[in-house]
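Follow-up to my earlier ticket, as requested here are the two runs.
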Amino acid sequence: MRIALLSDIHANLPAFEAVLEDLEKQKPDAVYCLGDLVGYNVWPNQVIGLIRKHGIATIAGNHDLKVSKILPSEGECSKEQSSEYAYKLVGSKERDYLLTLPRHLKLEFQLNDDHLNMLLVHGSPRSINEYLLEELPKQYMLDLVKEFNADILCFGHSHKPYHRIINSGKDGSNHYHHLINTGSVGKPKDGDSRACYVMLTISQSATVTSPDGILELQQ
């Protein structure tokens, strides 16, 4: 199964359109968005419209939830500088959509005699605002995936993509966990200005006792 994972579009319509065009070529079996549809750029309503048009299952990001405290702008555009401007552009219907998005999505796979639990979050399972950076200590990440029973943990928020595999097994037994940061579609922070998303392939041979069978490709 091939699953496309994207995050942190931040109202960047040209970047999102480029990703959608590539997805048409890749033809994944499923597409999930890990939040932050809005903020920074000026096309929030168009991005939300495309998310809904394409039926992309989406969770809330921290920027999406900001619209709960910032009402849509009325009348002419203000000439004053404001850090809230990008959120004031969000229409009333789009605002209602953002505020009904779930915080987490959990998928469970039954492969042969093994279960794989996949958890989709924006920041981390503990907090929508937490940054799960690649250099965090192994024990911290192990405690996190064990607490939330996640064999595959997918997240965004930091705008820096990576794929890290850690082993929680003991006494000669293995239990591998995959930590996948999807990077950012609309505001990359990894030194590459191109839109980034992840194509995750889960094969029939995937199992928690081996790091093989799960291939993550970045575009």
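Run two:
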Amino acid sequence: MTTTLHKSITLAEFLKLPETKPASEFIDGYIYQKPMPQGKHSRIQLKLCNSVNQVAEEQEIALALPELRCTFGGRSIVPDVSVFTWERIPFDINGEIENSFAIHPDWTIKILSPDQSTIKVIRNIIHCLKYGTRLGWLIDPDERIVLVFLPGQAPLEMSGNELLPVPEFLKLNLTVTQVFAWLKPTRTSQ
């Protein structure tokens, strides 16, 4: 269950607060603490980041980052996976990735945790789309579905062997079945 601070504050005040574990998000003047990630959530998050980065990082196409705070449009949210095209990634003068991302992701992915508010998660995905995000996924491990959000369209419910849409800058073929197969780690022969 998410925790809510009931006293309204400003975004600037929120950004001065120390980080919490699990992360807190700032939405419409209130602070909501995300639930602690559990096994299924963590496994899907890890495998998604690895899958995207395997095909996109070396060629400097895009980068997938887990649990990254993104502050834009009056909110400060922490998607489970944020994917940015290479040219939008903020780098410092040393060519290292910045700590602060005051931009929307190009692709936002949320993995629903037990007892997490589906409405709050969907509202954050819609907020991202409103500010320029090209694609949003909401992965529900219990229902074994992925809701796909595209700007200006109704959400798509995907399951089974359906090929999941990815942003046009990325060459990644994943089905819903493949995503949920990650929940059964396999041993490699030695």
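The only thing I checked on run two: The first helix runs from residue 11 to 16. Let me know what else you need.
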